[in-house]
């Protein structure tokens, strides 16, 4: 019973069906009819004109987004636990040609204005210091918390006042949306977000994420960067088809609801052991080595995090029985 | 009837079946069992230990290959019509951090030792000139010719003597292999090739090419570069499965044979109009604007190349009837 | 008797005197009073508001200029014999983060609109090709020719129509100005030039070139790039002082006049052997190996260029006697 | 009376004399006889064969050093207050093509093994995290402390065990040597340092620092990077001459002794106000805004650092009377 990550889950059947349906030859790259429907589909979803690019990974989406917002000699404010800082092998530095990540602090990998301002306040003027050009937050965060729209808006207002671009890493965007029950618009452009990495793969997709520009003009150079990064697949229709399949019938929301609900059930069973509020599909627990070993004996697979801590992730396709079994096991812990 | 490119053809049914079969959750990235079979499968094919990485595009494969062979301050010798020079939006410069492509000349986008030596002879020593570090050839070439193993070996010997790494862009490697009826080994490492971009997408794949290192040690940093380029998909098993499906039952060879045979038939019908020897699945023709228009009226879709020239590409899945119809139409030209 | 280059000549005494005069401590970097006079001094010279940055080498000046005009994914049109292509170890690619030099042809390393248009005409649209963003010419050229103001203006008009930035590598700008007897304004911004690398070191300076932005706004990021390239010296007053010393009393013009005049005298003696019109301080000659050896026996030091060709360069400080001796020796050649 | 920095002090007269003496034309770049003496001069100083490159700034020296030790996808451990992190506008990221600075903590900008190990212990394996490739320390530190040889050796041993390259930013190397009274060898290669940025400009030079490779093979690519960065001045003899002038008669040591002694005198006067041990030529003090204003009224110029803190720097050429006056003023503070 795998609770180690949502990034290797199965693919939603509708996605595989969409691949089969995309077979007929069409123009290459993103010149095909299916790719041609992306902008409209996401514009509908967000309630304004957006430019939407398919892209194979969240790492590439984040990095191209940041390269759009920040020059090589600039800096990007982010949490020190952010995926872009720790888990992408320096891809943001690669795509931005050496921009610096400026690290802020906050509980649960979540930032607020004070935390961001502490970073900018410490930076001198002139040409000697790398100057901040963008702010990047992750929603839901790397520790399973999620920003509410008004929290995003407070950061967006601050970023705008500082002249910074605003990026949201939404690898688990769906889980955040479901948790807050808000519109995608409220969570993004209405709150000042300029670019969104909209994750689908963890949530049932196969190999397509969406990179959303709320100012479609910004997408022009991003399309060049996508090609230059080797990310413009020749049979792009199979990428677009995945995204449209996930949007159809709100599969993306249903999948996130399932994962969040399962996580909430585990959190409830875990009680005071939770290290952070559970606001998406990840649960971080205090867990001794013996307790962890005991759970593994029962067949539960998960990651140790720090000493005495563990991470449990519920996937969109997690069987009900596995969640129930784990909840029972957690409830039995002392 | 589309003859404009093979890069948007359909996907071989076995590939789609392989995706469905890869559904069960396994470890993420390339830690899954299917990815774990790649090295052995390609080592079998090449008759020696190789490291094989799945990667989404030929552009990424080529660029990571070149970054492995050439430092930022080095140069890569290639034909001025090479895909890496003209069609990849500077991805080689991006992945190598600014290495320079050193352009050589030759008919049909094909290089020989004299052409390469003309480039190196013109380069001064010392730190002022960019020094060559690698040679890259395309087989089959961008103009549908293909190197025979002994031609590759002559270049390989020269490259080795000059201390240059040797890369082969094999976006249409299968077509070259089929044309010469040789082993993959004879065309590559036995001829001095260090790294091969082994194309599958034009030949029936969906979104997976293979990057083959004949010295497996070179793959170590390439795996890092793949991640850093945002190309390490989390559900990598679906990438590996495509490649294994194409190798199984020699689908990759059967598909290339079909495409080459169709092209040969067209070449035969076109007679003296062919601009280059037809040694793969591309046919370049002298064709007036009126003649081109006439063919299009009959339903044939293809690219104009230069003034008075056209390119016809036969895909692996090209219906027999389309080939016959185009052959007839070509034969009717004056 | 050294005729191999002007790049290792002595330093004009006024420059050394200016260094001594710059001793008193002032603010660091370019915050000192002497650096503060540069903009005004060059604005006077060019008859409009310019931003002027001191910088240690022509390579750095050229590279920062190009990085200002061209994004990493863009291209710069230049002659295939340009210094930026052959003699700077890829510094333009380094500072631009991988932009591509797009090579044009023309006699004597000189470009015209037709040569430039041949480059742009061969480039396809879309994201697959590197798109041109700038044009760079060298005046005087690497082969000792020089553009007249109207020739520059024709290129400037074309560049503007194409949306390209326009850079002039003026490592020997003074020699071109003196040859044409025109104003610095006529040769640059009045002809559409956006950025000028204004050379002083070959012409009597020690270690300071000037980078001139005719649109001062462009200098803002260039100042950041100068720092990021490690080119913002802490005792910058000694850099600015060199430039002001060279401008004072028109030393820069006097030095170039001397060098040009000496070269003209040699050209006159060499007669039909000259390979290119002599329009600056370089003379390229047809010269057999025996003839070259004969000159060297007489004490003349110079570079062989290609087979049967030699390059002679006259420096600003070349003794009259040396020029006379070489002129005599050339006149004696059969 | 300027105590704001040593980076804009006057140039030692011997350096100016050396410039005048270097006038006679010689080969360009670093092919001249004076540049040719550098390796031997620094090998003598360090008691082993070293490669020594002149370079215009400490920023360039540090960045090229780090690029030699760390690939684009690697990381460099340094203090969060290090000059390479805060004061070089991202030059290390530029020259390394995007390597990441991995920030460690310690009092007075000084690191020990525990602080460095805390950084490496937090880094996961595999390709997702940026892996450390080098350690960089500053000696004397940015807060005026200095490592003793055995402290450097402890770090060097740890770095070697971890497979990390070891760089020392010696912008104030002379001050550290003088403070500890040790040999340059003991402070560097005997303690495991691979590359040293050996500062001369703050200590009486004009525009030349030295980049010292204790493994001369490493210098080969560094020479290429120096050219590629636009740092290979054509009249390099004037760079080498500065360094040799500073080494002659141990001027570099005498100057540092003077600066350190002046600082010690100020520290003694300041008593308990000193924030860090004074081990070079910088003094950081607790100082209220009123107290700072009072000192400025008396004619002392210095930087505020953080709230309630000030930095005083004594230069090599600081007049005795200024030091005495400031010492008196400090002693009068309550």
From TrEMBL, chains A, B, C, D:
Keywords of the record: Lyase, Pyridoxal phosphate
SUPFAM superfamilies registered for this protein in UniProt: PLP-dependent transferases
A family per Pfam: Beta_elim_lyase
Domain Aromatic amino acid beta-eliminating lyase/threonine aldolase: 3-268
Cofactor(s) essential for the protein: pyridoxal 5'-phosphate
The UniProt record lists the keyword Lyase: yes
The keyword Lyase is assigned to this record: yes
Record-level Gene Ontology MF annotations: lyase activity
Binding partners and assembly: Homotetramer.
Similarity-based family: Belongs to the threonine aldolase family.
PANTHER family named in the record: L-THREONINE ALDOLASE-RELATED, LOW SPECIFICITY L-THREONINE ALDOLASE
Protein name according to UniProt: Beta-eliminating lyase-related protein
